[in-house]
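Handout, page 2. Input:
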Amino acid sequence: MKAILCTIFLFTSMIMTAQQSAAVQNNAIEKMVKMYEMTPDQASNYKSLILEKSEEIGKLKSVSLKKSDFALNLEQINSKYDTKILSILDERQKKIYQTQIAMRTSATRQVRTDN
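Output:
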């Protein structure tokens, strides 16, 4: 009986965590859509790209890699999706996004040199 209850609890916890993760991700997407003042088409494309990127990062996390290999692969994924996201933005939005990329890149390099 304990095993059944534990299994049910674990399964329920996993579902709740997945739902919370999806809710957090959707909230972040909505914030970006508002911040960039995206058109409905842009918002739809952006959401699709972020969901694809998230799936690709999830696959990367499921593979056992050295930290340096993981970081390199993550950087490649970010770069690939940055290019795709930039392609759906107008010039004003691109400037903002490029600033965010530069900030993220700088922070990532700082973390690497600190470790």
